[in-house]
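Hi R.,

Here's the chain you asked about this morning:
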Amino acid sequence: MTDSVGGVAEGPAAESGGALTYEQARDKLTAVVKRLESGGLTLEQSIELWERGEQLAAVCADWLDGARTRLAAAMARQRDAAAPEADAPF
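And the predicted structure, written out as tokens:
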């Protein structure tokens, strides 16, 4: 399904952000930005696109925050596995 301003897909899953991958959200955000930059929109259309862009940017930020958390956890596990145990006598 596409919206009336810019052909960006919307719907229940898209609105919640839960069904979009990072790449999908990024690509849709890029399309929104290009459409806004091209001009020729009414004020209402511009506002709608801006709001959609904000939603998509939040989805991207959530994905990136999750990736940072996972990387930090993996690095901590690696660091813990490499560190000698505190109880070891040597």
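The chain has one domain: 12-82.

Let me know if you need anything else.
M.
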